[in-house]
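Sample intake sheet
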Amino acid sequence: MDSSQAVYQALKEAGIDFIVSIPCVNLGKLLEMVECDPEIKHVPVTREEEGFGIAAGAYLAGKKPAILMQNSGLGNSVNVLASLYKLYQFPILMIMSHRGTRGEFMSAQVPMGEATPGVLDALEIAYINPQTPEEAREHIPKGWFLAETAGAPLGVLLEITFW
C-alpha cells in the first residue's frame, strides 16, 4: 500500500467525515481520494486559519474533522489553535506534509521544517510522526481517538521521506 492510500484508509478507519484542505504537492493524491469519497465532506480553503474555523463549526455540527495542510501553514494557524481550539477544547487531526526535513530540495522550507515540532510543543499540541505507511495506518486512528478524548488538536507530521 502506498503512503497516500495508507493515510486515506487510516482517516476512514478513524471515522473522519469532514476534511478541509490547503493544496500541497505531497498531499495531491490523498486530496483526490478524499474529493471522490461521498462519505467525506471536503472543503478546499485558501488559508489554514479559515480551514480551522470551518472545521470547528463542522465539529459543533457533529462531524469528525481533519485538516490536510503543509507544515508551513502551522505558523498561520497559531492564534486559532491557541485561542479557539484550546479554549473550546475542539479536536481535529492535522495531517501535515512536513516540508523542510531530510531530502528537502527547497531551502526556503527548511526553517519552518525545523521549527514545526517546537511550535507544536509551545502550543502543547501532541503529535505523531509515522515513518511508514504501516505506521500511519496504525497510529492515525489512535490519534483521532486521543484528540477526541482530550478535546484537543493532534498533529500528524508526514516527512518528505514518508511520501
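Comment: The chain has one domain: 3-153. The longest strand covers residues 92-98.
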